[in-house]
Specification:
By secondary structure, the protein is of the alpha+beta class. Helices cover 30% and strands 26% of the residues. A hairpin with a 3-residue loop joins β13 and β14. The longest helix has 21 residues. The structure holds adenosine monophosphate and glycine (GLY).
């Protein structure tokens, strides 16, 4: 089977390394891919959002199955175009991808179907938004409606900051058209859980739970990033919480999408907060998380391609998805300066010629291979992941392996997994 994976980060690298384990897979292409991915797949220089070129490539290469991983091509409708031309793919339709692509859509969906989430109002007028915020309490959460590279959420501590946030999103258009509408919502507290699931439109099967670390510095300080590290499983996602989520959140969401005429196929990612009033949805993503995927897939025992095909064929219910006992920790090595400005092209030392380290999975996010060595080429550069018997052992292993790689001004958090380990120790 010939597979095309769309995207080019650590998440795609993790997906590719898992897909390679299926004996029926003969070729894997990745567009655009990256330096590390080029050791595992044939990289094709097509932008992930270039639907026409991607489809043209898939048709000319007679691709049997496509895996569309990033949010933007899904929201633009790449999966629909592929299916229209007879190429089955893993990933939701354009209509189903609205669950991530429009926060107004997802919040209204949750309200209509009684799915627990933060109270909110939506606005298309700056004056009306400011008027509403002036009557509320702080902190308050302001979200751009559309995609904003994970930066579209602002938590305002006071009216002045809230007014500035609304103005920058709605008038200055710092996120472009994504800020034509906004959601203003109640500030929730509690531990966060990334609950990724496989869905075939009617059946939903959770993956192992995980905990992301979004801020750039230790102790959750500094600006939000795409994610600086993950541990899986997440100790807050106990069996009781998992059952409650299945009953009140996962199944109702799948059913809601069916009823709205846009059944969800692919990976539906539930960003949850375990509030004092139970689990609530903070956000939906219409795709695998990054770097969650890098910590989740090493724990998957069942063949990934078989699961992906089942999501497409509507036969997910027939598959028993097995996970390894134990845990995985993933620590991201980022360029100094990320998520702000950073240099690229710096030599990375400590990797073998396959871009790996013995005893770890190194998934490349922002690297280039110049024929001899790996160079930095992005903000998040590598994710170093280790599987071990439990979260503390996985964390120790990941940091030990990470200490073998370096590049100038490499930055990583030193507390990935610390909150999870404290929770495990308090049990
Ligand atoms: P998102 O991009 O939607 O994942 O939001 C980024 C981060 O903002 C989340 O991981 C939460 O930590 C925080 N956040 C989003 N919505 C809320 C909320 N209603 N209350 C508290 N924190 C929130
Ligand atoms: N790690 C968070 C995300 O993928 O959205």
């Amino acid at each position: 089977m010939k597979i095309l994976v769309v995207g080019g980060g650590g998440r795609e690298h993790a997906v590719i390394r898992k897909l390679k384990q299926n004996p029926n897979v003969t070729d894997i292409f990745c567009a655009p891919g990256n330096g590390g991915i080029s050791r595992d797949a044939a990289c094709v220089p097509i932008k992930a959002t270039d639907i026409e070129a991607m489809l043209g490539f898939a048709l000319s290469e007679k691709i049997d199955f496509a895996v569309i991983t990033p949010d933007d091509p899904l929201v633009l409708g790449m999966a629909d175009e592929f299916r229209k031309h007879g190429i089955p793919c893993f990933g939701p339709s354009k209509d189903a991808a609205r669950i991530e692509g429009s926060k107004v859509f997802s919040k209204n969906l949750m309200k209509k179907y009684g799915i627990p989430t933060a109270d909110y109002q939506t606005f298309s007028s700056e004056d009306e938004a400011v008027d509403y915020i002036s009557k509320g309490s702080f902190p308050i959460v302001i979200k751009a409606d559309g995609l904003a590279l994970g930066k579209g959420v602002i938590i305002a501590e006071n009216l002045e900051d809230a007014k500035a946030a609304v103005h920058s999103i709605m008038s200055d258009k710092i996120f472009g058209a994504s800020g034509n509408n906004i959601v203003v919502e109640e500030f929730l507290t509690g531990p966060e859980i990334s609950a990724l699931t496989f869905c075939d439109g009617k059946c939903v099967k959770p993956m192992v739970s995980s905990m992301d670390h979004k801020r750039v510095f230790d102790d959750n300080r500094g600006p939000n990033t795409g994610g600086m590290g993950v541990v899986a499983p997440n100790p807050f996602f106990t069996e009781a919480v998992a059952n409650e989520c299945m009953e009140k959140i996962f199944l109702p969401t799948i059913k809601a999408m069916q009823e709205e005429g846009c059944p969800f196929q692919g990976c539906l990612y539930f960003g949850l907060m375990l509030t004092p009033n139970g689990p609530k949805v903070i956000e939906y993503n219409c795709r695998f998380g990054d770097p969650e995927t890098q910590a989740i897939l090493p724990l998957l025992e069942t063949d990934l391609l078989d699961i992906m095909l089942a999501t497409t064929n509507g036969t997910l219910n027939d598959i028993d998805i097995k996970w390894k006992d134990g845990a995985c920790a993933c620590v991201v090595a980022a360029s100094g300066g990320y998520p702000g400005k950073y240099p690229t092209g710096l030599a990375i030392s400590g990797l073998n010629s396959d871009g790996q380290i013995d005893g770890a999975d190194v998934f490349h996010a922002g690297t280039k291979f110049d024929g001899e060595q790996f160079l930095t080429a992005g903000g998040r550069v590598l994710s170093v992941c280790c599987v071990a018997k439990d979260v503390p052992a996985a964390q120790r292993a990941a940091y030990e392996k990470l200490s073998q790689v370096s590049f100038e001004n490499m930055h990583f958090r030193r507390d990935i997994g610390a909150v999870a380990i404290a929770a495990i120790n308090n049990k």
